[in-house]
Amino acid sequence: RYFHDKEFYLKAPIIYKISSWFLRIIFKKLDIRSISMTDEIIYISKFIKERGKKIYNREGYVHYIGIETKNKKIKTDAFTLKQSLNISKDTHIIFTLGLSHQMKGAKELIIIFNKSIN
Question: Are 8 and 47 in the same domain?
Answer without folding.
Answer: no
